[in-house]
Amino acid sequence: MLPHNELTKWVEKMAKLCKPDHVYWVDGSNQENESFFNELVSQHKALKLNPKKKPGSYAFFSDPSDVARVEERTFIASVLKEDAGPTNNWRDPVELKETMLKHFEGCMRGRTMYVIPFMMGPFGSPLSKIGIQLTDSLYVVTNMRIMTRVGTKVLEDLKQGKSFIPCLHSVGYPLTVGMEDVEWPSAPIEHKFISHFPEDKMIWSYGSGYGGNALLGKKCLALRIATVIAREEHWMAEHMLILKLTNPEGKVKYITGAFPSACGKTNLSMLVPTLPGWKVETIGDDIAWLWIKEDGKLYAINPEAGFFGVAKGTSYKSNPNAMKAIQKNTIFTNVAITDDNDVWWEDIDGEVPEHLMDWEKKDWYKGQNTPAAHPNSRFTVAASQSPVIAPEWENPEGVPISAILVGGRRPNTIPLVHESMGWNHGVFMGSMMGSEITAAAISNKIGMVRRDPFAMLPFIGYHVGDYLQHWLDMGRISNYALLPRFFYVNWFKKDENGNFMWPGFGENSRILKWIFERCDETVPAELTPIGYVPKIETLDLEGLDLPRETMEKLLEVDENLWRQETKSIASFYETIGDKLPHVLKNELIKLKQRLKYNEDEPTKASMHPLNES
Q1: What is the C-alpha end-to-end distance of the chain, expressed in Å?
Q2: d(CA 534, CA 556)
Q3: How many CB atoms lie within 10 A of CB 261?
Q4: pLDDT in tens, 439-461
Q5: How far is 475 from 477, CA to CA, in rounded Å?
Q6: Spatial distance between the Cα atoms of 64 and 459, rounded to a whole number of angstroms
Q7: Which end of the chain has less neighbouring CB within 10 Å, N or C?
Q8: Which stretches does DSSP call E strand in 319-398?
């Protein structure tokens, strides 16, 4: 336990190391926040947007070398290398600290060290955690204020004897006497370090001012360090959306979903259903913390207070609720700017302007080949501004989860939706999920599946095999019948011409309805070797102009393709090594058996939905 005076000692120690000109304790007030933006605008580090178009909003433009998370410079510094596992970049913690201390020495000269007290999760929740981030970046301060709960109330909680997670961050660009600052200070790639110390429950980040590298409450704390804490405390930190689904009769279910990037995760969390009477509200769009209560059910909170969404591709067609949320009090990063000082990016609504200022602050003209907005351009907006934020999104007791969705981009093999045969089989489904590689930059791997268990591959703070075992162990805490059902969805199946067969977006509500009804056991499903698949007649397709032949292809379980799939899964499992849970090995063996002997009468041992052995 670290009492309040320990915080003061730590801040003083870090200030002595980093040597800032000033130390400022952030209180989180509106007045303070306005003064920060005024300072950023006066220093030409932020652009105030048109108050008639985007009141209270600002645009930032990063250095071209600092535009995304840098996985190759992200480290898990566990004491033992084997604890980091094959999916993490491991560094010896003693050596890494020595290296980083040299970089941190005097790194904040000429700058202010801002002390950000922040809470992950609603105040009063049994899972919520306090972090203290030290940073020399006002961009980070203003973003953290949106993404987390920042201010003096956090310090009041800390005074009650609670512990905190120390997070030290610097852009790595000290200012000597007479030296002018740059618009986006950062360090060269080889000097960037985003380091996690699992045993110390500590985060050190140096050299990057961008996104998850610098907003240390997000992926660093809420996932990488939180996964370690969650395993020790018997809960789960997951890369999942949480949505509230209400049927026309007013009955509610809460659903989580794990999807890799570019799979429509944020869009699903803010879905506008096409089915009359159905309603989707948002609890969270990116991260879920889950625990099993005394009633045996799984509950979830969203540890974040805002959305850090990809701007590019967001539109009223793809995500109208996100577009409504970002109309005011929003921070935009690396978007393009119109001549009337509004924001623009590719695939946004309306005509392409004749002229823009692109994300590198250069003139851009219609028809130009180079993108105006960076592909990883972002918006940061408070969750409370979402028109579909659920009233209970900040309930400290969380919401009960009925279904867990997993999925990825697969042009074939995986049907539109199928349900697991039980918890262990559901964990198996989550362990083998992934997306097919299509990028030309890695053309030698096109067609291969990049496996990404529960969309957590870059975010597990320890060995991936131990992580999958933790999922299995969580199931044993409760009665399996009380736990959520697993569903694998694939919105991205293609026909022989390479066209998407399923319309997606709001039409996904039709699949959510089937999932809702499966959780209530009010609709039947066909048992196949891979799990339960809908019968076409049980899906609500009224008003959807989709041929029956297309629906049959969407729901098809091609056993030849699945036999190939088992080989691919086995190859991935080999990379996990000796820590791959035996239960998952057995699930793969049982799948192979079901595919081989699918013509025979299936045995209860291999097919029963509650068989968890």
Answers
A1: 40
A2: 10
A3: 13
A4: 433 445 656 889 999 999 999 99
A5: 5
A6: 24
A7: N
A8: 331-333, 336-337, 343-344, 355-357, 363-365, 378-382
Q: Which of 167, 220, 263, 519 is catalytic?
A: 263
Clarify whether 263 is annotated catalytic: yes
For the purposes of burial, counting CB atoms within 10 Å of the CB of 135, is it exposed (0-12), middle (13-18) or buried (19 or more)?
buried
Q: Is 554 within 8 Å of 416 (Cβ atoms)?
A: yes
Who contacts 533 (Cβ-Cβ below 8 Å, separation ≥6)?
A: 415, 417, 418, 419, 525, 526, 555, 557
Check the CA dihedral 77-78-81-87 and report its sign: negative
pLDDT for res 447: 67
What is the pLDDT at residue 399? Answer: 98
Distance in angstroms (rounded) separating the CA atoms of residues 400 and 363:
50
**Quick one: fold of 238-304+392-607?**
Phosphoenolpyruvate Carboxykinase; domain 3 (3.90.228)
Tokens of 332: 């935009």
Residue 438 has what pLDDT? Answer: 56
Answer yes or no: are the C-beta atoms of 432 and 284 closer than 8 Å.
Answer: no
- Domain at 4-44+70-233, CATH homologous superfamily: Phosphoenolpyruvate Carboxykinase, domain 1 (3.40.449.10)
Place of tokens 């009233």: 391
CA dihedral 181, 185, 190, 191 (to 10 degrees): 80
Report the relative pairing of strands 279-284 and 241-246 from DSSP bridges: antiparallel
Instruction: Yes or no: say if 152 and 27 are a contact pair by the CB < 8 Å rule.
Output: yes
* Residue that is written with structure tokens 């590019």 in the block: 312
CA distance 365 to 354: 6
Sites in the chain below the pLDDT cut of 50: 1-3, 439-443, 597-613
Structure token pair of residue 292 = 């099993």
Q: State the pLDDT at residue 67.
A: 95
Of 135, 129, 164, 163, whose CA–CA distance to 149 is shortest?
Answer: 129
Single-letter code of the amino acid located at 288: A
Q: Would you state the CATH architecture of domain 306-385?
A: Beta Complex (2.170)
Question: Which residue matches tokens 């007045």?
Answer: 31
Q: Which has the closest alpha carbon to 483: 422, 568, 412, 414?
A: 422
What the block records as the tokens of 114 is 């801002």
Q: Which amino acid is at 441?
A: A
| Neighbour-count burial of 450, counting CB atoms closer than 10 A to its CB (0-12 exposed, 13-18 middle, 19+ buried) | middle
Cα gap 323→311, rounded to integer Å: 9
The pTM score is 0.95
pLDDT of residue 599: 34
| pLDDT reported for residue 597 | 43
Nearest to 554 by CA among 569, 530, 531, 533: 533
The single residue listed with the structure tokens 């969380």 is 398
Q: Crossing angle for the helix pair 93-104 and 4-18, nearest 10 degrees?
A: 60
Domain boundaries defined on the chain: 4-44+70-233, 238-304+392-607, 306-385
**CA count, 13 A, side-chain hemisphere, 214:** 28
By residue count, the chain amounts to 613
- Measured distance CA(463)–CA(576) in Å, rounded: 9
- Separation between Cα atoms, residue 163 and residue 159, nearest integer Å: 9
Specify the pLDDT at position 5. 85
